[in-house]
Amino acid sequence: MDREPWLWASQEAERVIDVDDWAEIRRLHRAEGMGIKAIARRLRLSRNTVRAALRAQGPPRYERAAKGSIVDAVEPQVLELLREFPAMPATVIAERIGWTNSVRVLRDRVAELRPLFTPPDPCQRTCYFPGELAQFDLWQPDVAIPLGHGQSAKLWVIAGVCGFSRFLGGWMIPTRQAHDVLAGHLEVLSQFGALPRRVVWDQEGAIGQWRGGKPCFTAEFQSFRGTLGIGAQLCQRGDPEAKGLIERGNRYFETSFLPGRRFESVTDFNAQFTGWLRKANQRIHATTKVRPAEAIFEDRGSMLAFPPVLPDPSLRFSVRLPRDHYVRVDTCDYSVNPRFIGRRVDVRVTLTEVVATCAGVEVARHHRCLATHQTLTLAEHGQLARTMRREQTVTDLFTAAVVEQRDLTV
Asked: Does the 133-302 domain belong in CATH 3.30.420.10?
């Protein structure tokens, strides 16, 4: 038996309709031209419900009544601490107020309240003019590079990008020492084909640091950029937007270059990386809508030309050659011509070679070993040392056979 109309209407008056009913009510009213009574009869809804649906500005949404948080009780204490110490960490605030609950909910509330006491720090989008600047950074790929002698390590890459053209460059270096960083820096600049008027660097030990509120560059970097005639800008700590172009470039390397690749050596990495960069610079950039390999020509038109004499960032030192005729670079020992024992030799260390000279004469040339605690001996040096030891032994035997004779008349 059907229910009585008045009973159905009274029960349905308190019903909360969903978005399907709301959409159907509006369709019947607007498209079919049905009145409120007809819609209520067809959908078995009350007329008040139909009227409410037609008056609503948007679809119905379920909203749960807000409940209080356990942080509400300590919020006044948090506000007092932030008012005096706006940069106080949430963990320290928890300790000061005796917070024993989860620090996560307290950290979320502190993040909401902190902007009330700290000045806003907006950033702006930067437009780059041709040849104006290039950003550089040290990127460490998450892959072990074989170094020889059964050793491997995660090395660093000098990564650079031109601001206007978004042209990318990069070169893997053995260490983060100044001579290696600057030698890699010069390699990337040569990939650009010209010199940007200003380079932007993060705070690196080989480049410089902020001290006393002003940037202090290292002597090696000052000599390097002075020879090239370019300017430099040192980013402050905690300001990633200052060199966002190269930061996004590093992520691009990690997601598009590294996956699925294996490397046999540093040389193999640089060969694969530079080959991939040639293809990457041919893509249409998402921001500029231009291929970096084409935009670089306009960039170079406003860049500086390389000077006639390029800087030499090689590591140089002088040492007196000891009796074992080896010189040490980092943790490795390299043989030198034993004929020059006791004389002072000049050693020059590049990205790939270790060269020793004495009075302008080359006495050793080794391929630089990136493994640690190794002894490298050239065949001719070892053979010459053995020959000299045999000659010395014969001389010692001959000298020992000569006996001094004393005049008996004395």
From this structure: yes
Instruction: State both tokens at 300.
Output: 């170079």
> Which residue bears the tokens 């950033």?
123
Distance CA 381, CA 341 (A): 12
Bridge-based pairing of strands 214-217 and 208-211 is antiparallel
How does pLDDT run across 24-33, given as a tens digit for each residue?
A: 888 888 888 8
Burial bucket for residue 171 (CB in 10 Å: 0-12, 13-18, 19+)? buried
Q: What is the pTM of this model?
A: 0.69
Which long-range CB contacts under 8 A does 146-149 form with residues at least 24 apart? 146/263, 146/264, 146/265, 147/265, 147/266, 147/369, 147/370, 147/371, 148/265, 148/369, 148/370, 148/371, 149/369, 149/371, 149/374
Domain limits, the chain = 5-55, 72-116, 133-302, 315-395
Tell me the Cα Rg of the chain: 38
Taking the alpha carbons of 7, 8, 9, 11 in that order, is the dihedral positive or negative? positive
Tell me: the pLDDT tens digits for 75-112?
A: 999 999 999 898 899 999 999 999 988 889 999 999 99
